[in-house]
Amino acid sequence: MNIGLSLADQITLELRADIIGGGLLPGMALVENDLVSAYSASRNTIREALHRLGQEGLARYVRNKGVMVRRLDSDDVRDLFKVRRTLELQAIMNSQPLATYRSDRMLDALDAAELAREREDWRVVGTHSLAFHQHIVGLLGSPLLDDFFTNVVAQLRLAFFCAPDEPRFQAPWLARDRQIHDWLAEGNKHGAHEAMSVYLDDSEQMLLHLLSSTSKN
Length: 217
Fold this sequence. Notes:
mainly alpha
């Protein structure tokens, strides 16, 4: 756990990480008693953590059911992609030549995603793909934006769960992620920017289509 943070902050970060990792699904109940036991924390601390998770858009109170992991709708997805376009495209166009350590971090995420694909662990594929995009935003060099984008990534993970066919949803993006990295490594910011712009358009449309199909069933 991070030194200097309150216990409620630490629990909030762990719950957010569980969402990003695919351990907490949309609609799943966040049971106060279970969390008190799991974290050896007081009820007030757990309630504070759940309140903060709600402020981050990751949980919501449902009458007669309690606090639940949030389900996202089409408007949420459109808003998330507005943020992604603002941050990821700006990060690419404003980036300096890709430093070795930044390239290595991106490649580590891409390699881990491909290993997970070989194991057909598609949830882990999605987690590492999201990590790659966190490294893209990291090119802006802003810890504040990094933290903000981590919350965006957690919400994206919740949106991904609308896909009934994870292999079909996750498979197309790995080669495109690697091409974006390679263009950045070559110093071709315009190529990377164009590829990312099309990538985000395609990803948004796929998610919106999946959400629309799910709501009709």
